[in-house]
Structure formats: C-alpha cells, structure tokens
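Dear colleagues,

I hope this message finds you well. In preparation for our joint manuscript, I am sending the Adenosylmethionine-8-amino-7-oxononanoate aminotransferase (Rhodoplanes serenus) sequence together with its predicted structure, so that both groups work from identical material. I would be grateful if you could confirm receipt.
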Amino acid sequence: MHGSHAADQRHAEAMAAEISLRPTAASYHAAIGNGMPGWYDEGRAHAWLPYSQMKTAAPPLPVVGTRGSRILLADGRELVDGVASWWTACHGYNHPHIRAAVAAQLDTMPHVMLGGLLHEPAARLATRLATLLPGDLDHVFFSDSGSVAVEVAMKMAVQSWINRGVRGRTRFVAFRGGYHGDTTGTMAVCDPDEGMHSLFRGLLPEHLIVDLPVDEARTEALDRLLAARADEIAGILVEPLVQGAGGMLFHDAEVLRTLRRLADRHDVLLIFDEIFVGFGRTGTLFACEAADVVPDIVTVGKALTGGTLPLAATVASRRVFGAFWSDDPMHALMHGPTYMGNPLACAAALASIDLFAREPRLDQVRAIETQLGAGLASCRGLPGVVDVRVRGAIGVVELDRIDIAALKARFVEQGVYIRPFGRIVYLTPALTIEADDLARLTDAIVAVLSEP
Ligand SMILES: *Cc1c(COP(=O)(O)O)cnc(C)c1O
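The corresponding structure tokens are as follows:
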C-alpha cells in the first residue's frame, strides 16, 4: 500500500513538472508562430478536454471567435468548419436572429427554476415542440444535455410501467452501433464494443444490445427475444435513420416501421433518440417523419438551440404521460435538473425553430446532400477507402485503417476543421454552409486521403 502510494507521489511530481513545461506548446508555437494568447498558455495546464489523452494529444487550437461556417483562431487564421460543433450549429455560428432572442431574454430573466414555476420561454417551447412532433407526442420534459434527456426517457419508460402496476420491466433493447450519451445510464445502452462498456463493467446495468432488424433473420431474432423476455423489457431505444457518434451508420425507414410493429406486438415502449438526427440533419425536420412512425418517447438536444446554449428535451406521448397522471404523489416523474428549461436556452430554441420555419433549411439540406455526393464520390477507389455514404447533410468516408492524429493535423493545414473518429472521416456542416465552403471541405478530404 505504502509502496504504491510513494510511486503515485513520484508520478504526480513528474507529471506536475511536465505539465508546467507543456503549456507553451512548443510544437504548436512552431506551427503557427507567435501571438499565443496568455489565457491559452495558462489555461492549458488546467482545462481538461474531452476524449483526449492530455499528455500526447496535439495541443488544442486556440479559438477566439466563430462566424457562419468559420472558426477563427488566435493567429488570425479562419478554418472552414466541417463539424458544426458536434452538428449543433445548424444555422451557422452567431446567427443574428438567435443572438437577438437570447439578448432580449438576458435583459428580462436569464434563469429561474421550473420548480413550482412556469415561464413564457419554456411554455412556448413546450407548445412548439408538441406541435412540431407527430402524433400525440405532447408532453415535454426539459433537461440540459442529451445524455440527461436519454436518462430521463429511460426513467420515464421504467416508471410508466411501475405506475401502471407492472413490475420488473427495467431492461432496454438497444442496438449495435448506437450511441446515446456518456453518463452511466446511457453508456449501458451504447454499442458494447465502440462504447466504454468494457471499461466500466460492474458499474453498468445489463441491457439487451442486438442487431438492428435490417433483414428477415434479424427481425425474427428480435421478435423471438421480445416474445421471450418482454416482461423484463421497458422499451426499445434507437437512433432513427442514422446512428451518429457510434459510426455514422445508416439504415432504412423500413427498420423503424419494423420496430414500431414489434413494439406494438409485444407491448413495449418505442423510444427514438433524435438528438443527432433531429432538426433537419437527415432531410426532414425529425427522422420519425421520414418513416411515418410515431414513437412513444422522443429525445431531442444538440441542434435544438441552433448550437448556442445547452438544452435538451424528452417528449412523451399521451399514453406515457397518462401513466403519471394520478392522484398518487408517488406517481410523479422523479427527476428535475437544476437548470431545466433555462429561459435563455428556451429563447434560443424558439428562435432556432423560427429559422426552420422562415428559411429554406430543408431545401439547403437537399442541396448539401447533392454536393456531398458529388464532392466525395472520387474518394471511392482511393486506397484504404471501404465506403462513401451520404444522407442529408451527413457525408461519411469510411477507411479500413486510419491515423486520426495525422489526418486532423493535415486538415488544419488545409484550412478546414474536420475530426475523424473510429475509422471514419465525416462532415456534418451547418445547414447554411455556402457551396464554396462545402467544396473546400470535400476537396480537403479528397486531397488528404489521396496522399500516399
Ligand atoms: C450527442 C448525443 C447524445 C448525448 O448528448 P450530450 O448532449 O452530449 O449529452 C445522445 N444521443 C445521441 C444520438 C447523440 O448524438
């Protein structure tokens, strides 16, 4: 015990010495010259970045501003953004309509809790989401991140059974290739190999992660699983049409109709996680519209505020909400994020939804789809490329192997911001991106992947 403590101590001292040397980011200075802002050098020792080996990863780029589809760096360079900040910034950065709405709300009421109170931005946004979503998806529970919205959907599903007097339905069916968040509850419904499952085994509840019913054999397998175990299953959880962060994998709308049919046959709830696909990404405002399927619960997040403020929502059908509507206080939904329904974020979301109504976003998605198809076509046949696929404003080049760090650096040298992961290089640009900027993104991918 003592020996390992001493070793830990030595490791900590060596690390502190190394960290105090690293903030100058010598390699990065060499690459971009002088002019590194003071906050950058100081803060690099303290700011812990996501999914990043802080010791060996390339230093982060110092960003000082955003505009449209551009990211502005401290040295004056502008990168064309192919990611739109994890596909949130659907109208481009700094859209004046959203900025004005948030500024006006800031003057009135930046925040007040929803505990016992209801304010205009949350009320209007709940109404608007209930109107936009199909069928009787009418009851909106706000939260502050996508992972929490999925956690709420899972708790909602489980408790809806309990409230109806049915015990033991605590498991979910979810799918290989899926991604639903990084919190403990949502990790357990992510792809077991792609996700962080194995690392956290023992912490996570066990769910049933199976293949999407894309063909007859897999449909029958899922049907048999549900027949055998429906009495332990609360619901089926799926990212409709595109599994995003698990690998940008596409499936047909028919798969969603199959899931609806199976969920009905075995009386389990169907949950669509639209956090990636929602707000136009695949060509319709919501992916469920393309399949003409009404799920029992939907989660939205990411592009909900047009990429300006954190906000997510879990929207339930009348049937699910009905299970909580009771004279028994114990039947209330036991959840309440502190900042749920934050007025600034709701104002941003309302303004973002205005833009979908006012501006031709879905036409823009179709134009992006066409341009991505043409612009990435020549990647087919390049060495190492195993697939090129496009759906809506999502373009994917899948490789048989990939040097992520080298690719990231080459893209920055080309003046574009593109973040490969797994074995894919992908684009999820702002839906408002100019054709010239989109061409710079696809040209950069073709150029870099053509290099020996
Ligand atoms: C990003 C994402 C989440 C998690 O959202 P956070 O806001 O990062 O917690 C959940 N589901 C899907 C489909 C996502 O793409």
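For the figure legend, we might mention the following. The chain has a mean pLDDT of 94. The chain has two domains: 13-51+58-91+360-450, 98-358.

With kind regards,
E.M.
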